[in-house]
Amino acid sequence: MTKAAGEKGESISSAGPNGQEGQKKAERRHGKLQVVEFLLGKEHYAVDLFDVREVVEYTSITKLPDTPSCMKGIIDLRGEITTIIDLKERLNIVDKSDLPIENSRIIVLDEKITRAKTGILVDDVLAVSTFEQGDIDSTSASGAKEDASILGIIKKKMREKDQERNELIIWIDIRHLLMDIGQG
Length: 184
Fold this sequence. Notes:
- This protein has helices at 20-29, 87-90, 111-114, 174-179; strands at 32-40, 43-48, 52-57, 71-77, 80-86, 105-109, 118-122, 124-132, 136-137, 150-160, 163-172.
- By secondary structure, the protein is mainly β.
- It has one domain: CATH 2.40.50.180.
- The strands form two sheets. A six-stranded mixed beta sheet has the order 8-1-2-11-10-9, covered by helices on one side.
- The radius of gyration is 16 Å and the shape is globular.
- The model is unreliable at 1-11 and 13-29 (pLDDT under 50).
């Protein structure tokens, strides 16, 4: 990893292509989950770290005609055309905030899961975090059977003024979310 998420010019990369899958399996065996945490509106979300190639600052998006509304368009990312999906629109999140889109971040996904250069537009990237399996509640997500894109709810322990509380993070399956728009 390089700079912390959220800083200008940050880059979040998962393990190299050769060690990636082996490390992922080892982490799961030991009951750990590594995720990239981000904001959509006021809610916290996460995707598996090993589904992410990097995080980049917002850049101008060229709109494409006759595409699903959540497909914002394309960008030129270091000479490669990358399709950008607006995750808020894909998840039907209505956000009343007036945050300028220029403050957004693009999480570039690993091509192994998307078969094409694809990035997801999010409001902000917060951190790369590791959680124990005991911090994940998969049964709460089962209430949304029609949307199997929610893998579970992560309970992140936070300390505020000598009190401990859980911040809830919605862990999503980005592969499932992009499947129906031809990106997964």
